[in-house]
Write a structure and sequence with these properties.
Blueprint lengths: L10 E7 L5 E8 L8 E6 L3 E3 L5 E3 L3 H6 L14 H8 L6
Antiparallel strand pairs: 1-2, 2-3, 4-5
Length: 95
């Protein structure tokens, strides 16, 4: 995943798919090395766009992404919680 400036901001580690088979979230890993010390972010799939090199573009800078709620591989939030999902989404949708 890159931002609009072309900086690499993370890697998609997993996808969350709802009951109808629609991708809802990309789990983006930032930081860490070889999976150790990674910080994970639940990025709404619809805010990602496909870039020219089959990469995904997220219109966010690194500092803003670091300010979003993150979690570790051992402390996943309840992704089925609508309140959590709405609160998380506001970090990624520009008004």
């Amino acid at each position: 995943v890159h931002n609009e400036a072309g900086e690499k901001i993370g890697d998609i580690r997993d996808l969350m798919i709802d009951g109808s088979g629609t991708i809802r979230l990309a789990i983006v890993s930032t930081g860490g090395f070889l999976g150790v010390g990674d910080r994970l972010h639940a990025v709404p799939w619809d805010v990602l766009t496909l870039g020219p090199k089959d990469d995904h573009i997220l219109d966010i800078d690194k500092a803003h992404l670091q300010a979003t709620p993150g979690f570790t591989s051992k402390t996943w939030p309840n992704l089925g919680d609508d309140h959590w999902m709405a609160d998380n989404r506001r970090y990624y949708v520009h008004h």
